[in-house]
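Contributing new records

If you add data, match the layout below exactly. Sequence lines come first and carry their own label; structure lines follow with theirs. Keep one chain per record. Anything else will be rejected by the validation script.
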Amino acid sequence: QLQLVESGGGLVQAGGSLRLSCAASGRTFSSYVMGWFRQAPGEERDFVAAINRSGRITDYADSVKGRFTISRDNAKNTVYLQMNSLKSEDTAGYYCAADRSPYSGPPRQSSHEYDYWGQGTQVTVSS
């Protein structure tokens, strides 16, 4: 079992930045592919970014490429999402997730592939 706790959300003006953190419990954090997803009210949960176990391979939704950066520190059991040049359409609840499968390909974008989820942190971007 892996427990995930997000932090770092808040209210920011358009063009600003936020850094989200997701702290994981357990001693096997480095064996999980990690992802960030977001969900606005009345919308589906959408893929934002993912990172492989070593941190060397990342993937991003087209809508955030060039603005968001995912990273991880396996020594600290933490995954981060640096969000720059924020837009009002980035407003959503942001969730980190862990994929425990041994799949070794590129990080997956489907929320159905992820096994553990945090409770989410709200990001609100004012225009």
